[in-house]
Amino acid sequence: MIGKLTKDVVVADKQAINELYNVGYYGRPKGDILELTLIEAAFLLYRNKIDVELDGEILDFADFFKIASMRQQYFELKYIVYKDLRERGLYVQPSVTDFRIYPRGGHPGKTAAKSFVYVRTERIPMPLRDLMKSLNAASNVRKQMILAIVDEESDITFYEVKSVNPKGEMDEIYPNITAEATLLEERVIIWDSEASSTLFENGFYGKMLDENRLQLSLVESRYLLENGIIEIHDRESDAVLDIEEFSKRASAIEPEFFSKYKVYEDLRNRGLVPKTGFKFGTHFRLYSQIRSLAKMPHSENLVHTISPDHEFALPVMSRAIRVANSVRKHMVFAVQSEKGVDYVDIGRIKM
């Protein structure tokens, strides 16, 4: 069976519709011809299912592959992923994304596609705006979004990307008084023992300095200050710091203070308990509910705050997800937008 290479497709006759599309769902029938993408044609050439002709000459696999790589950007990467998916027994077709995949037991004409696949090289950073555009496109038609990242040795790592709506079950319990606290060099301490124990035991704020005093992080302090629970004083003058002055000082201490605080506030308002994720290389680890400090539950999510103009260095992203998976957690990225905070879960997936 011979297909003719024309621009960015390979065209075969009616026989190909019967033997390639009707059997393996390769290509797209158009009247009495079958149009194959360059990637589909390369795979079929590799499997000795077709020959490809250009200007009256039959191309061998190497010649076709080189020509195709000059006609389609990232051709070799997409071929690597396509071949891998096909050899797993999945029906794969080209799409507005790189590929769409059908569920096992399904195929074009019988079932709807299950997933959209986007192919990336590990070498080129991935702008968040591109990721969100792809995620929204998949979500709008209720498809699973899969990132297929090809490394320098042509190994593929598959990631599922999905929007999540984290919610917790914590009821806020505060002392009935406004507790005095002091901003020291890089943290805040509450001096009142009753307020300290109430906040620590019921809301899991801060960490006890000793049996009577509670030390707070900067984001915890701003949240409690904004909710009228604590009054923060300057350590030298004892002057009361309003929210604006405290935030100014906090941002001088921690450059990411404002972006972290917006996410911290949103998570607290969702009934969750965010605590530092420093040990895991992230901003927060999350608890949906804490009933007893003596029996701390497992935190299921790690959260890292990123800006709308963030670019993922894919080896760094891979490392963060690997760390999260190794401690049985999900890696969630928090993105601030005009509407609030959006949360994107990126995790490894087996195909």
Descriptive report:
Helices cover 32% and strands 30% of the residues. With 351 residues, it is of the alpha+beta class. Among the domains are: 1-71, 3-Layer(aba) Sandwich (MutS, DNA mismatch repair protein, domain I), CATH 3.40.1170; 171-261, tRNA intron endonuclease, N-terminal domain (MutS, DNA mismatch repair protein, domain I), CATH 3.40.1170. It starts with a strand and ends with a strand. The model has no long low-confidence stretch (mean pLDDT 94).
Q: What Rg is obtained from the alpha carbons, in whole angstroms? A: 28 Å
Specify the overall morphology. elongated
* Protein structure class: alpha+beta
Biggest sheet strand order reads 7-8-9-11-12-23-22-20-19-18
Characterize the main sheet: 10 strands, mixed
Q: Please identify which CATH superfamily of one domain we are dealing with.
A: tRNA intron endonuclease, N-terminal domain
Number of strands: 23
The appropriate CATH architecture of one domain is: 3-Layer(aba) Sandwich
Beta-strand fraction estimate: 25-35%
Termini separation: 31 Å
Helix content class: 25-40%
The CATH topology of one domain, please?
MutS, DNA mismatch repair protein, domain I
- Can you give the mean pLDDT? 94
Q: What's the level 1 CATH class of one domain?
A: Alpha Beta
* Count of alpha/pi helices: 10
